[in-house]
DNA sequence: ATCAACTCTGAAACTTGTTCTAGATTACCG
DNA sequence: CGGTAATCTAGAACAAGTTTCAGAGTTGAT
């Protein structure tokens, strides 16, 4: 039978939980390759953003043939979205350890997002690569992008301190995510200042207050 | 002296109103070329979205040499953002004729955006090309993207019926724009339904109500 | 240990965005 | 009208993402 299982098996078409299916377990060497690739990707991205992540260079840096790179990540966008998943998971862990301290849910969410924003500011090129990939992704990357979105939702709900959100609250969270992504883009492309992003985040977080009284 | 003036003169660095500088007036033939190019761009985009707009094809369709195309629009993203400016201006005209009828500012804005959304649904591929270009644009396209953003702001303020918005209101409008762009993207990439987009728009529009009482 | 099936490698080829060049054309000034 | 500087054209060339392929390397089953 197979030797090293196909690393990036296409997600089954289960309409629900399409992403992150029961990935055929990778061998150790495959796991190591995958990790080397993601590391090289993040490293190159940190240098020069989206454009600096060149597939040939990623392959070389991670000691993997170009064809192999494409077997693990079927496109540059897939690679960068996976890189984002990686970083986000890391950040989620960090945030868990120091939960925000605000009095209201809105404050805590704004605090959390600003903390994430400050982390991104430390690696603006990396942020550029990840966010550009995320918004440029077409349908073929939907499962992976969705996974990122789910992770973001969890982070926000955590900050709100909710286990069981109402539909209205979920809508508010979605709008917050929209604002978060789009505000990041305006910042990355130099059309909005850091202060502006802060204001936008704080503004949209007020929506949370609306959902406790309404509906 | 010069024959046909440089069509796509770099915007002066005037920090304010950077885009749309006093473009050296185009000759009639140049204006016609520019128009042919934009038309070809929109046409190809309507067929197959972002990927279908291939620079060689645009050049051929519009009867212009590739080098000329690049002189008018220095990149594919520039071209598509200009295409969006064109379409937006058109839509602004249309919207002006039939202003929204809702009772509250929030309702009117939501109505207006949903009207725009329905227009985009009629040409989903074109929408895809324009929106993807807009969010993928890097700093070199900032002036043009900013112009689009300004136009969008005007449309929203028109719907609100405001001449002289407060800073809080401008923040709300920015957040609405963020939500609008990002919601479009999730719809275009098949991660959100039309109904979902509608809900998100209605949700974010509630922010407008907040600005009349608060602050 | 051997085999079959699969994966990885290295290199070339292909695609499409972008740049460059030499020569033909056009616009405007005097 | 003629001159001249800029524009336009056709086509080659280059860059980076993606695909393809033959052969070498692994893996797990027998």
TrEMBL record, chains A, B:
DNA-binding region(s), chain positions: 54-73
GO molecular function: DNA-binding transcription factor activity; transcription cis-regulatory region binding
Low complexity: bias regions: 1-12
Tagged with keyword Cell inner membrane: no
Keyword terms, alphabetized: DNA-binding
UniProt superkingdom: Bacteria
Region of interest called Disordered, as start-end residue ranges on this chain: 1-30
Domain HTH tetR-type: start-end pairs: 31-91
Bilayer-spanning residue ranges: none
Entry annotated with the keyword Methyltransferase: no
PROSITE patterns: HTH_TETR_2
Name of the protein described by the UniProt record: TetR family transcriptional regulator
Lineage of the species this protein comes from: Bacteria, Bacillati, Actinomycetota, Actinomycetes, Kitasatosporales
């Amino acid at each position: 039978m197979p030797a090293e299982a196909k690393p990036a098996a296409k997600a089954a078409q289960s309409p629900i939980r399409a992403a992150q299916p029961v990935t055929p377990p990778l061998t150790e060497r495959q796991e190591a390759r995958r990790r080397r690739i993601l590391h090289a990707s993040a490293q190159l991205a940190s240098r020069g953003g989206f454009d600096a992540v060149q597939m040939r260079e990623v392959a070389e840096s991670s000691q993997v043939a170009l064809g192999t790179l494409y077997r693990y990540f079927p496109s540059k966008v897939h690679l960068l979205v996976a890189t984002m998943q990686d970083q986000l998971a890391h950040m989620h862990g960090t945030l868990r350890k120091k939960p925000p301290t605000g009095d209201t849910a809105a404050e805590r969410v704004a605090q959390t997002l600003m903390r994430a924003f400050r982390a991104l500011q430390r690696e603006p090129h990396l942020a550029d690569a990840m966010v550009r990939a995320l918004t440029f992704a077409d349908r073929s990357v939907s499962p992976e992008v969705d996974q990122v979105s789910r992770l973001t939702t969890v982070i926000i709900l955590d900050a709100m301190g909710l286990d069981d959100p109402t539909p209205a609250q979920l809508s508010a969270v979605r709008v917050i995510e929209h604002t978060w992504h789009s505000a990041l883009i305006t910042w990355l492309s130099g059309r909005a200042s850091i202060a502006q992003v802060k204001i936008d985040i704080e503004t949209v977080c007020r929506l949370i207050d609306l959902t406790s009284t309404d509906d």
